[in-house]
Amino acid sequence: MSQIKIFNDPVHGFIEVPKNFILTLIDHPYLQRLKRIRQLGLTNVVYPGANHTRFSHALGAMHLTQQALRVLMEKGVLISEEEYYATLAAILLHDIGHAPFSHALENVLIPNMHHEKMSLWLMQRLNEELNGVLALAIQIFQGQYPRPFLHQLISSQLDMDRMDFLMRDSFFTGVQEGIVGTDRIIKTLAVHNEQLVVEEKGIYSIEKFLVARRLMYWQVYLHKTALIAECMLIQILKRARYLFLQKKLSECNDKLAFFLGIQEQQALEPQQVIENFVALDDIEILYAIKQWQFCQDKVLRELAQRIWQRKLLKLSFLSKEAMAPKLRLFKEKFQNQTGYTEEETNYFVFGESVSNSAYLKQSQEPILILKKDGTLTDIIAASDLSNIDALSEPVVKYFICAPDFVWKD
Amino acid sequence: MSQIKIFNDPVHGFIEVPKNFILTLIDHPYLQRLKRIRQLGLTNVVYPGANHTRFSHALGAMHLTQQALRVLMEKGVLISEEEYYATLAAILLHDIGHAPFSHALENVLIPNMHHEKMSLWLMQRLNEELNGVLALAIQIFQGQYPRPFLHQLISSQLDMDRMDFLMRDSFFTGVQEGIVGTDRIIKTLAVHNEQLVVEEKGIYSIEKFLVARRLMYWQVYLHKTALIAECMLIQILKRARYLFLQKKLSECNDKLAFFLGIQEQQALEPQQVIENFVALDDIEILYAIKQWQFCQDKVLRELAQRIWQRKLLKLSFLSKEAMAPKLRLFKEKFQNQTGYTEEETNYFVFGESVSNSAYLKQSQEPILILKKDGTLTDIIAASDLSNIDALSEPVVKYFICAPDFVWKD
Amino acid sequence: MSQIKIFNDPVHGFIEVPKNFILTLIDHPYLQRLKRIRQLGLTNVVYPGANHTRFSHALGAMHLTQQALRVLMEKGVLISEEEYYATLAAILLHDIGHAPFSHALENVLIPNMHHEKMSLWLMQRLNEELNGVLALAIQIFQGQYPRPFLHQLISSQLDMDRMDFLMRDSFFTGVQEGIVGTDRIIKTLAVHNEQLVVEEKGIYSIEKFLVARRLMYWQVYLHKTALIAECMLIQILKRARYLFLQKKLSECNDKLAFFLGIQEQQALEPQQVIENFVALDDIEILYAIKQWQFCQDKVLRELAQRIWQRKLLKLSFLSKEAMAPKLRLFKEKFQNQTGYTEEETNYFVFGESVSNSAYLKQSQEPILILKKDGTLTDIIAASDLSNIDALSEPVVKYFICAPDFVWKD
Amino acid sequence: MSQIKIFNDPVHGFIEVPKNFILTLIDHPYLQRLKRIRQLGLTNVVYPGANHTRFSHALGAMHLTQQALRVLMEKGVLISEEEYYATLAAILLHDIGHAPFSHALENVLIPNMHHEKMSLWLMQRLNEELNGVLALAIQIFQGQYPRPFLHQLISSQLDMDRMDFLMRDSFFTGVQEGIVGTDRIIKTLAVHNEQLVVEEKGIYSIEKFLVARRLMYWQVYLHKTALIAECMLIQILKRARYLFLQKKLSECNDKLAFFLGIQEQQALEPQQVIENFVALDDIEILYAIKQWQFCQDKVLRELAQRIWQRKLLKLSFLSKEAMAPKLRLFKEKFQNQTGYTEEETNYFVFGESVSNSAYLKQSQEPILILKKDGTLTDIIAASDLSNIDALSEPVVKYFICAPDFVWKD
């Protein structure tokens, strides 16, 4: 009867999916796989509600894109049916190339591979399977279609991807300060010379969006405990690869083994990787760590036990200058007390940095404000305060990780 | 049975009121009068949902104060029962001296009278009536009690008054960007040397609170249409006083007449004013304007008709420099086209300014952050960005009001 | 730029109003008047948040109707542009004939006049003013248009009027149990033989809607304290009319006077009433009661004082049989203790009944369920339980009102 | 500093956990394991948001219990500190004995073992570990403590367990009709003769709670697609056990193997089972099914593939009488078309029934209403309608499962 299938979403309510190739994509194993990949990886060590999946996010981002396209059409922007569905397909598939725990494991599971490249490979494969129905979606995804606002809806400083993940992550972590009035922002979108812009009255909403985003970074994405859990996960995978390449990793399932076997500088072709990639999700990683609690290698065993039993390393922020000397001191202390080798020590005592800026002012794609007189201006200039300017300063934080006892005097 | 009476509140859910003198206060005509005074005056010309009253706000602010006091006690701050209830009484009564539409009419209805002074008068009168039960509440309200954090809960840059009104005004206007996670801020409150402070982890929440506050100023409190409606209301009352003092105001109810008869420099004593003041609420003002649509004086009649029939003057922001010449031009044009006198013209064509800063950095009472190492610092220094510094710059905007036809070429 | 004007609504978020004659209607004084009539009259004596207006409700009901029409169109129901806007106009105007406090004052302010008749008169007047643009809306409103589902959307057991007022009244009173998932119900609406029906999967939602409705009746609409306040308001108006017709009512504003002068059996023509009717809103009624606290007539004075100072009569439910004897007893007791005459006593001691059934099963317009096999059935038969059957039993409650001291032994 | 640790919860906001043995329990591996067991098992095939865990539910139920205890204390019920914490411990641990997917796998993974028995075993083990600190909690959990209301808070027709899971499951599935105003119900709880009762004014809330519960059963818990997924999961485990006992299951991890090896009538002692039980969570089950897609046994392989690739069997409800003949017909048809044996056919074609009643009226523990006159009555008698009586009728539904092609003519 209805031309629409409805999904229930805790964040947006009802999500309407047109019963055409869009629904075919959603039912495809490539997208269904995202149901088994949590959006926030290990963040649930801190926020126990954060078990939402990349699948829900893909649906949600598509939903917001649909809203945005309708708003633009109501404002007189001509958008063909083909463009409409292609944009939905592009946003739906934009994260399809994410590996499990990809926030942490990107570049670790497959060295030097960005998830967007994998997304593209998978889209191209799907396009073959579906007889070219995704050709336009791929063009839009790559930013090659001559109407840039469609690409900007799915990837820019104000795209529907971020809108959804900010809202969704706030919702499921329970960090209500991150909640963003997407409705209002979307209502103020417009198109000017085929560019996505924001009407002047939307400035305060954008500003609040940028503040919320920054807040989510420090409160959730870069929360100390989540950060240390992710760092430890990376160490685990690095150790596992090291052991695997040395043929010393006894316990490992096939799918994971494939990826551990990829060498640092190895050039990969889609056909080699895709089958294994789409068979991999959170389950293999979690299962492997659970097993490795009892494996032979002392380093891997301790790391796996520590993460599984929540005996996490301790992380502390410090100044850039203080880092090198402290690290040297800590490594020495650790080695002395544990008997681990210098090389093994690096898995337990290490330094890193994280950075964030809410708005990239040097970006080639600034957020553009459409003033009432019809002129365009960067949001920094449009805002009546130096506030957004301030927000666009990148904040870099340095930190050291080490076991508890190393921190004590 | 229960020692608690429960009020339903759309914003906070259940509000618990202890069945002691706090409930007596709530049932008193002085507080019940606030049920007939809308919190946002004429803002419902723009936001039709904004019909909430000062009574609900008083209850809500008391509710948040109760939450804050409990959080502090859980953290080991000793607060006696007497202090507890006195603080609740103080916040409950803090706005009791507001006149109808006081956002606009403060200083107009009673010249040179601040609502806090009237609140104090009324509290003192209540204290007599209730045999001194409010003595401590009055001390706290005036900031004379030796434990300043109790006063700071009801009046400071981070008081429960603002927390509630920001949340409530966002809620009822439907401007969701103004919604503030008061729960989280309240959880991070602490007391240090009897001062109210915020734990370090609360910084991002405070920042978001300040941004939300600024947003609400420009989007709601100083919304152009609400602003012009309020300016016109002031003009109406000024004209009515002028006519009244000239004995030319035929239609006017007794209560309002009392206030219109107060002279500019007249010194007032509580006993003269209180009876009339507490008998006045939104109804008299609205009723008077409605009548004045048909009164004899041409100026008052036109102003009343314009506001009632939504033929509002037009307001436009402009630079400080541009103001004087434009005003001169507009007045001349208006006089020529209407035949009004120069003095009458001032009711229809006039300039004003509004200003706002989200955070007062020169304030004697900065928002203090309690760092993990036990030291205190101003939030500007504690924030990792120049962001709050930016927020604390006052923004001043100048505007001119005049009838539509004056703006046209 | 945009063809749509946006209103902020705390309940539904953004409400989109097409910038055609629909916006003209909203800006018209007839509809603007609803901004000064509270939806729930005196219910704010119990629920202090309940200050929302009939204007907001009209907008909200229009919003839901817009949603419903879009759902139907997506399911393939053909609806012309003319039908679409006419239905929006009809729902927008459906309550335009409500007097202030009409829940209580219907039939009291204007004897024997139902608000729907007044709504029709006003629509016809508007239609003249707007050169016939409302002809189809009026047909739909009256149920004379050959496609009954359009009328059913605005007036039936499942209309958008109820959907909105239940949601809105729950929202503003803070009685969350009344909140209804209108989204879901609307998604299950369909049209079968031009009748509005519900798809089978919507049964549980409808059931919950009916339960919520019943709950709101007993918890809000017929709440004892709200009920007694409304009964007293009726007594006040009755007494005022009695005095007015006897020429004994000294204090009364003109607009109210017109209505108090209407005789019980008087036949009224639109042109006599409309001007006065549209000039009347909550302000006149409240202003009059406030004044009558000090009027000459002892009965009116006491009633006005009691309602204004919250010294309400006491209401108690009892069995139908117990009513007459108790009433006799109470009246006698009251007369003896106060010295009021028998006729005056009736203003202070009286009995009434209220009734409610969540679903009218004998109605000519049952809620129809469209089963998957394409057949229709009444919801009572479709529900797997005798539950809705039970809900459709009317509940009648009898009560007596009298001053506190009469109830005491 | 604070004596309280705060958890963020999307449903309840902040959850406060006292930093005593309650926090020790939460940090214990037995409870942490619940983070890896989803509350609704396979329901996320239909509701993609339903990934919340039993851990969050345990926290949430504890939170509501804390609220309920505070309400009771405010009403004058004396509750000692020991009783307070013991009740929190009991509710926190009440579900600790749940196996992964226990909604489906209870009695399948460990034959004839109810999860409450396992919860008790684990509590006793914890009690030993923690030197008897749980003695009172265990007494309360078992209903052996002389103050029954404490047990009733954690297990009865109105316990905090149901309150939380209904709210939580509604929240995460996005089925808003299931949302229950727990705040209001909790506020109306009272204690009478040491029994948990509800004050009269709470009747409508309870009624709504029961309706919401029934709705959630049919809309979520017994949703056709979720039901068929669970039935298939049971078939998979049954087949795996059959193969394992026949030593024909090549691929199986150790932990799962332990359980597959338990014989139907085998008597189990805690010490045999506990270690393996607490090592088992969703990961092993999901991992095993994923592997079994490629196993040797044709039946297990097909079942695993069907569930993983969402080629679910089809389920249809029918009358009890129609079941046996249809089942016979379908099995025959399936065997003929596939070549499976009769015994193998039973894994693919089978009939079952589900039942639900919202309120058990024959229960020994009815929901008791405390009337204003101090007497008690069952809610059925207290309700002014036969509505709850109707709700208490059990509804039984019969259904058949079979592959799609069997259903077709």
Largest interface: A-D, 35 and 35 residues
**What is the CA–CA distance across the termini of chain A?**
72 Å
Give the name of the CATH architecture of the largest domain in chain A.
Orthogonal Bundle
Q: Report strand % of chain A.
A: 5-15%
- For the record, what is the CATH homologous superfamily label of the largest domain in chain A? Hypothetical protein af1432
The level 1 CATH classification of the largest domain in chain A is Mainly Alpha
Number of helices of chain A: 21
Mean pLDDT level of chain A: 91
Rg for CA atoms of chain A: 23 Å
Poorly predicted segments of chain A: none
Overall 3D form of chain A: globular
Biggest pleated-sheet summary of chain A: 4 strands, mixed
What string, H for helix and E for strand, traces the elements of chain A in order? EEHHHHHHHHHHEEHHHHHHEHHEEEHHEH
Number of strands of chain A: 9
CATH fold-level name of the largest domain in chain A: Hypothetical protein af1432
Helix content of chain A: 40-55%
How many discrete structural domains of chain A?
2
Structural class of chain A: alpha+beta
